[in-house]
Amino acid sequence: MQNICEEWRDPASRDDEGHGNGAQGKPHADAERETLMMELTRLVQKSVRESSWWERRGIDCSILTAAFISLPAGFLLLGSSQPLYFLLGLLIMGIAHAVITVKGTHLSSHGALSESPAWTDFWAVFFIEVCGSFSARAGVHAHVKMHHAHTNVIGLGDSSTWKIPFLPRSVYLFIAPLAVPIITPIVAIGQLKCQSPFQIVRTVLCVCLGFFSQYYLLRCVSGLSCSSALVVMLLCRAMFSLPYIHVNIFQHIGLAMFSATQRPKRILQMTHGVLNLPRNPLLDWTFGHSLISCHVEHHLFPFLSDNMCLKVKPIVSRYLKEKKLPYLEDGYVSRLRLFFHKYQELMVFAPPITELVGIQ
């Protein structure tokens, strides 16, 4: 069986693939950009080779393990008649769910939890399907093979799947994200039509296993009624839906967008089309550094774990600034204000295509 998560190739080796401006135009400039990417790749690979297993994978695996270990306490507290203990249990369950279903699914989709292809496939199915209620194959294809391979390319990896133009801005930004736990399995069902019977059966069984396991534990361990268990499941799964949607649109939409036939070299594509948010103790640890404060590093080197993205961040930022390349950063509140005031321009109308004239 073909691996769900294929090994991501050296980013430098992809600079000469699929770019409409590579064969003609300015070969000397193209060669220089390829050299920049290869030079940065060597610096990052050196840091990775010098890092221990604990730095490469251990820290992130420990955070995921801690999330699972916290679940029994959450279930027990949810069975308490004391409002404070009940709310604490709800908070524990919500944070654990965010760590497992956002950080866990993201790392597993990139194969960042294990070097073994077999374990990589297992973790992808476990985190994406059992825990995340989505199709592993569809998730990896959409995120890794489309979004990462064609970042900010119109019609391919332009983040347009996050747009719902008919929704008013306040509804989209502050209310609609709460429906993500309900929408996710519905979208997953729609993604099954192009898959093999085995993958369809596996996905349905895994999603049901994850859903009914949580429901059963809330009923039997927490002692909740049927309706209360369903409400608690919705609250836990929707607790971080607002920042989840915000992060996914803030870091790409509104930045440079490219045409499929005139896309720039990889290092230019990622430095102009990806943005880092500042360090945030809560979101960095629940969603992972690669989705928050190290998103530029993640798009340049998607095979790295969250902790390794954080470790190479000074190397990447210093190198890009030395070479006078963009290193885009902005605050969460600043991006939220921008999207609120320019919602029509950013989330409704088609984005303009950027041409990096003079630096290609």
What can you tell me about this protein's structure?
With 360 residues, this protein is mostly helical. It is 61% helix and 0% strand. α1 (27-49) crosses α14 (306-322), α2 runs antiparallel to α3 (83-109) and α4 (117-131) packs across α5 (136-148). The protein starts with 26 loop residues before the first helix and ends in a 12-residue tail after the last helix.
Structure keywords:
single chain; 360 residues; mainly alpha; 16 helices; 0% strand
Compact summary:
With 360 residues, the chain is an all-alpha fold. It has helices spanning 27-49, 53-78, 83-109, 117-131, 136-148, 169-174, 180-190, 197-220, 226-238, 241-250, 266-273, 281-286, 295-300, 306-322, 332-341, 343-348.
Q: Structural class, from helix and strand content?
A: mainly alpha
Number of strands: 0
Radius of gyration, in angstroms, nearest whole number: 21 Å
Mean pLDDT metric: 88
Secondary-structure element order, as H and E?
HHHHHHHHHHHHHHHH
The major sheet is characterized as: none
Count of DSSP helices? 16
Morphology call? globular
Question: Share of helix among residues?
Answer: 55-70%
Whole-Å distance between the termini? Answer: 41 Å
Strand content: under 5%
Regions with little confidence, pLDDT below 50 for 5+ residues: 6-25
